[in-house]
Each structure stands twice: as structure tokens, then as C-alpha cells.
Amino acid sequence: MNALEEKSNNIAQNHHKSKILTDEQSKLVQKKLNKFMLGIFICRDGGDVLFSYQIDPTLKIDLISNFIAALSMFGEENVGQIKRIFIEGLDVEMNIVSKYGLISVFFFRPNMVKNHLEEEAEILLDRFYSIFKEPIEQGKTNLGIFLKFEEELCLCVLNYLRKLSLY
Amino acid sequence: MVTIADGRYDLPDELYYSKNQHVFLNLKKKIIGLDQIGYAFLNNPTEISLLVEDEIKAGLPFVAIASEQGVTTLNAPCSGKIEKFNEKALEDMEYDTYANGFIIKLKDISDIAPTLITGENIESWAINEAKTLLRSNYSFKIIEIGDTAVGKTAIKVRFTDNYFKKDLKTTLGVDFGTKEIKTSYLSTDLLFSGTYRFTARMNVWDAAGQDMYDKIRGIYFKDAKGALICYDINNPLSFNHLDKWVSDLEENLGKVPTLLIGNKSDLERKVSRQEGLNYAIKHGFLFIECSAKTGENVDGMFEKLAIEIFKKEENLA
Questions:
Q1: Which long-range contacts (CB under 8 A, 24 or more apart) does B306-309 make?
Q2: How many CA atoms lie within 13 A of A149 on its CB side?
Q3: What is the pLDDT of residue B69?
Q4: What is the CATH number of domain A21-163?
Q5: Subunit contact A16:B125, Cβ cutoff 8 A
Q6: pLDDT 10s digits, A68-83
Q7: Tens digit of pLDDT for each residue in B53-70?
């Protein structure tokens, strides 16, 4: 084998490594997410979705986000903050956290363990805001800016699994 | 072959790719070019120039490409002597980037950059890269206001679901609709001239027009990027009330891209087109007449508004 061939063979070992998670961790997170979660989105108070991670393809996240935003706006003006919604016929629960002019919504199966869920949702929103503070405050709605949050989301889920002693 | 982003980009797995610049190296054919993702990043390249004489060195600049976004300098993925520079590379790059669209052919290759990506590692890297490319995907909240019964809900329904129902019930509070549109904007801006293609999800908030909702309507304006102010060209009263809606808009949102709409163009006209146009010019609004019933101009007007919002968001002239 000449030097060039050796180099090209070494290159075959180059990976595009996830900055945060190992492959094994990613797979575990995906598995757990798929089991209990239907989707997650973070939108502005006004309803525009900035980031979404959809597991159940039937969820109409863009419509739901507008609905939740309107409900939150109306709630804050009139009845108080809305934190959780349960849709009986659809067997779906939604956990809602509002902060920094953003709303995060977790869709999950009612049988999911909910210990620390609100706390974790808030951590997730804190993280999102700390990473994207500038474009959020500038009112940017280019979704490409926020796409890289997927890895952070997986890390938050992994931490959550640790707290539940599932990892 | 690795295919990603719903079939938009192909990356042959026998090639070697530079991580950041998407320069490919074909070791067998000894050719270097730009992969399909790299080509898409360039956004309509116009000119290519060779920066070296007869030899390239791994990691050092070897070619410059001018495009709508400025000049991009590419670094060589390997070292070697140049056999041929393909001056017509840009002509073939879009459809045949891996063969006729090559940039240079080498006589020999003496070294290759150690950070290249190939084989089974291409897919995860390319998926991540393609995500960055999709940075032209917007979400715009649009608030739709105007007197009751001017056809706001009918306009929204025609746009989002493409049908017309005559006896729509009065909207209570607020109603929503959403639709994704693909459009482009030709900018003549001195620094950023060129065609910008983008996708916009238009989230239309149809606010109830009745007076009883005056107190709560304002909360629904939050974060709206644009507005539709509607009147009925068959109902002069709805036109005379426009000042109220304009002040409502400015009070809650300030100046945002706004489209003044004269709806029901299929009915007998009682407000002239010129009156509508003059009102729009006076307030710096876009203007259009449409018919939610026939669908005339409905899609076009949302596109117009999306472009105005895009221009504002990206600070384009």
C-alpha cells in the first residue's frame, strides 16, 4: 500500500461526530422519545413555530401552535397561565411552559412518567433562549437558524432519562 | 450513492468530500469539483477563476467562484499537478457536477487532506449540512382585520383550503389558518442583488370584526409580521371604517408590511379601485382587489405580502 492509499484508507475512518451525543446515546434518546412523545415545539408567544420535533406525523403543529398561543394570550389576560392540556379523545397530553416570550409544548402519552417534566421543559426553554437570544429578540422567523437545537433537545432528554434512572 | 433532503442532493459514496466547503475529490478520475450541496450553497454562481498556476496544495485556496452572495474561495482537498482547468465548469455544475462539471483535472495526486469525508460517513455529515441549507424557511404570522362581513374568513379559507362557502358563521374571537407558499424575490440591492428563493408558512389569524371584540382583539396582534386590512368594494361603509382598523393596527403593531384588500370584486362595485389605491398609497400599504368567491388574486396577494415581510426581515431593498 503506498502512502496515498494509506491516507485515503485513514480518511474512511473520519466521522461527522455529533457535538454532544454518542451514537449509542442518540439511539437511546430516539427510542425513548418515540415511545412516549408525540412531538415538541417551541413557538413565539404570538404562535409562530421556531423549532419543532415531530414524532407523530398526524400532529398539525402549525395549527396547534396558533391555537395554544391564542389560548395562552386569552388565559393570561383573563384566567391565568395555562400549564397543561389533556385531550381525552386523542389520548394526548400537552405540557406548556411560557417564558421569555416563548412557549414550549410537549405532546406526550398520558402514561408517560411526569416526574420533573415541567422542570425539564423549563430547562429546555432556558437552553433554547440562551442559544438563540439574539435572533429571538430580533424577531427572526427563519427556521433554519433554530434547526441545530435538535442535538440540544436530545441532550435535555438524556438528562431527563438520567433523573428518572432510565439511563 | 447517498441521497438526502428528500432526494434533492446526491453524493456518490466513492468520492471524498471536504467538510466545510463541499469540494469533492474523485481519486480514480483525478478530478475535483463542487458537490451538489456546495453548489446549492453558492446560490447562482456566475464566474469561476483559477487562483494557482499549475499546482494545488491540500488545504490552500485554488479557485474563486463569484455568485449572488459574493466571492467564495475554495481550498484544495489534495495536492497535485494540474492537467486541466475546466473554464466551463459552472455551465455543467447544476446538472452534472460530478462529471462534466468538474473544476480541475490533475495529472497526479501527491497528498490528500486528512479531514475529508467518504464512504459510510457521508450520510450523517451531509444531512447535517443540508439542514443549514434550508435556511430560507420562514414562518410569518399575519393578522387579518376589517369590518364584520367583509369576507375575512372567506379570504382565509380560500387561501388555506381553496374553497368558498357562502354562509360562513361570524368569527368568535379569532380563527386560524395556515399554508406554506414558495416564492422568490428579485433584489436590486447594491450589495445583495439577485434572486432570493424562500418558503414561507403563512399563519393567518382572522380576528373577529365585531365591535364587541374591540377590547380583546389587540392581544391577538402579538408578534404578527404583517397585516391584511380588508374592506368590501360593495359596501362603502366598510371602506369608510378603514381609519379605525389602521389605528388599531398601528397601536398594536406599529409599522408592519400591510396589504389593503378590496374583497368581493365579483359583486357590483360601490368603492372605486382608485379610492382603494389612493388610501393604500397614503398609508404606505400594498393594494389589491380580490374575490374570495372566485379565488381571483387571493394566492397572489399572500405572495406579495410574504415578499414584503421577507424583505423587511432580511433588510433587503
A1: B306/B138, B306/B140, B306/B181, B306/B183, B306/B200, B306/B202, B306/B226, B307/B183, B307/B185, B308/B226, B308/B257, B308/B259, B309/B138, B309/B140, B309/B200, B309/B225, B309/B226, B309/B256, B309/B257
A2: 23
A3: 60
A4: 3.30.450.70
A5: yes
A6: 888 888 777 666 677 7
A7: 999 999 898 998 887 666
Residues of B in contact with A12 (CB under 8 A): 118-119, 121
Q: Are B119 and B75 in contact (CB under 8 A)?
A: no
Residues of A in contact with B214 (CB under 8 A): none
Of B110, B136, B219, the CB nearest to A144: B136
Chain B nearest-CA distance from A121, in A, is 23
Instruction: Measure CA B268 to chain center.
Output: 37
pLDDT in tens, A47-74: 888 998 888 778 788 888 888 888 888 7
DSSP 3-state of B307: helix
3-class SS at B225?
coil
Q: Considering CB atoms only, which of A11, A15, A67 is closest to B16?
A: A11
In the predicted structure, residue A141 carries a pLDDT above the cut 90: no
Cβ pair B219:A74 closer than 8 A: yes
Q: Is residue A70 within 8 angstroms of chain B, CB to CB?
A: yes
- CB-CB: which of A73, A142, A147 is closest to B220? A73
- A35 in contact with B at a CB cutoff of 8 Å? no
Size of interface A-B (CB pairs under 8 A): 115
- C-alpha cell belonging to residue B86: 475546466
Does A6 reach chain B within 8 Å, measured CB to CB?
Answer: no
Interface contact flag, B224 A62, Cβ < 8 Å: no
pLDDT in tens, A109-139: 877 777 777 888 899 999 999 988 988 998 8
Mutate to test the interface with A, among B176, B198, B309, B313 (most CBs of A within 10 A): B176
How do the domains of chain A map onto residue ranges? 21-163
Q: Model-level pTM?
A: 0.67
Domains of chain B: residue spans and CATH:
2-133 (2.40.50.100), 137-313 (3.40.50.300)
Cβ(A104)–Cβ(A128) below 8 Å: yes
Using the beta-carbon criterion (under 8 Å), do A140 and B109 form an inter-chain contact?
Answer: no
Segment B35-42 shows an average pLDDT of 80
